[in-house]
Amino acid sequence: MWFRPLGALVLAVLTLLGCSGTEEPGAQSGTGAETAEQAVAELFALLAIGEFASAASLAVPEQSALASLAEGASVADVVSGLRDGDEGIAANFWSGFAQSIDGFLDQGVEVVGSEPVTTEGADFTIVEIVIGGGDLHHVATRDVDGHRVDLFATFGPALASRLYPQIELLFSTPSADASFILSHMREQVPSLYRAVETPDLAPNVVQDLLQLIELITRIN
């Protein structure tokens, strides 16, 4: 799984989530890949050559904007990403992720298999990869106008504890924008339940995910 080997390195991803970078805002362009395995293979090929704008379309739309809450992105920025497209935020996410695993990318990434699964009524494909002949890792994808990486199902274990206080703040300061964000977060519950199924999660991380799900599902 990604959470264990990356450890604190995932902070590089979270830091860049809150940055606007050089990407221009706009609607999520392009489509995903024809298969889940192709999506993951294409993603890592693009990350290896620094094509983060091209990699943006391989993230499930809207998830990058929502995940940026983990680094305290403003309500206005998150709403803008949800309404106008979050491709720029997705590009920054992949840039941060590539930095956090830079040494691994040089070793090459091999896709070794995939398995379709259904969680909370949502269909996912779990793609297994090996980096540099080392450990097995899992990337969760969904077919959303083509196959794309599901950020919450894949990175949820690293995001949950940092998202919780931000979601709690949205509940405590109600507004039309807060309700808009919360309604979109509610749609990520199947992905977060999928993240709970990540192999070998520490008990405290499982608890973080379940607490986040419980909070989000208070939304009517």
Reconstruct the topology from this structure:
Layout lengths: L2 H4 L3 H8 L18 H13 L3 H4 L7 H5 L7 H10 L2 H14 L1 H4 L3 E11 L2 E10 L4 E8 L3 E3 L1 H22 L3 H11 L2 H8 L6 H14 L4
Antiparallel strand pairs: 1-2, 2-3, 3-4
Helix pairs in contact: 2-7, 6-10, 9-11, 9-12, 11-12
Question: Would you write up a description of this structure?
Answer:
This protein has 220 residues and is α+β, with helices and mostly antiparallel strands. The protein has one domain (3-216). Helices cover 53% and strands 15% of the residues. The chain contains 12 helices and 4 strands. It has helices spanning 3-6, 10-17, 36-48, 52-55, 63-67, 75-84, 87-100, 102-105, 151-172, 176-186, 189-196, 203-216, and strands at residues 109-119, 122-131, 136-143, 147-149. A hairpin with a 2-residue loop joins β1 and β2 (122-131). The longest helix is centred in the last third of the chain and has 22 residues, at 151-172. The relative contact order is 0.17. The model is unreliable at 1-28 (pLDDT under 50).
Which terms would index this structure?
220 residues, alpha+beta, 4 strands, disordered N terminus
What structural category arises from helix and sheet content?
A: alpha+beta
Tell the overall outline.
globular
Radius of gyration: 16 Å
User: How many strand segments?
Assistant: 4
Name the poorly predicted regions.
Answer: 1-28
Strand arrangement across the biggest beta sheet? 1-2-3-4
